[in-house]
């Protein structure tokens, strides 16, 4: 489903975000992507969606080399991807319903089918009764649920999430994880970037650990809290992937 083969990514600033990264994520698999700030997590997710391109190596999604795709082919790739961004990217001049509707409008769905899909997605994340609310009036956890609804409204086969529980308390974080697990149970492939030690400890899911742009471990056993502390306290390059241009 997703294959990285000796992938390296260096930004124009000289910062090397990823170094010779190789791993495979099978169809229907769910995994955490973890590591310190600047380890390369956000860059790795952007490479899957072809938001960034590697300097060397190949990124395959459904046996298609996305790093070689022409610009005109990118919308077709992204129709199979649901992306939950770290900074939400919600539209505050539109209500909840219209935020979720936008991807379907871009894809040309008719009004009846679009409305049906939007309400199904909102129902899945528990926001159906708030469809007319402006996102600014939602709590942090509700805004994250809205991001998830928008990401899944296209019914993607792959869901990518960048720090989806980063600003949430433990209870909300586990609720978000339960939503992801429900998608996994129906066959969606998930790759979730996180540095949340509680999430890693409480969910027995494969962990792919990055350290300074290199894969350190790829295991079905979550890393320990001690390993997590060591990773998050590592010094990072002043120009990390989080502040590089998308």
3D architecture notes:
The chain has helices at about 40-50, 75-80, 95-105, 110-125, 140-150, 170-185, 195-200, 225-230; strands at about 1-10, 15-25, 30-35, 55-60, 65, 80-85, 160, 190-195, 205-210, 215-220. The chain has about 250 residues and is α/β, with parallel strands linked by helices. A six-stranded mixed sheet has the order 6-7-8-3-9-10, with helices on both faces. It has a four-stranded antiparallel sheet with strand order 2-1-4-5, covered by helices on one side. The chain is globular and about 45 Å long.
Q: Widest sheet: strand order?
A: 6-7-8-3-9-10
Number of helices: 8
Report the span from N to C terminus.
24 Å
**Structural class by helix and strand composition:** alpha/beta
- Global morphology: globular
Low-confidence stretches: 222-246
Q: What characterizes the major β-sheet?
A: 6 strands, mixed
Beta-strand portion reads 15-25%
Mean pLDDT: 86
SS elements, strand count? 10
Overall helicity: 25-40%
Radius of gyration: 18 Å
Order of helices and strands: EEEHEEHEHHHEHEHEEH
Indicate the multimeric state: single chain
List keywords for this structure.
6-stranded mixed sheet; single chain; 4-stranded antiparallel sheet; 246 residues; alpha/beta; 33% helix
Summarize the structure in short.
The protein has 246 residues and is α/β, with parallel strands linked by helices. Helix content is 33%, strand content 24%.
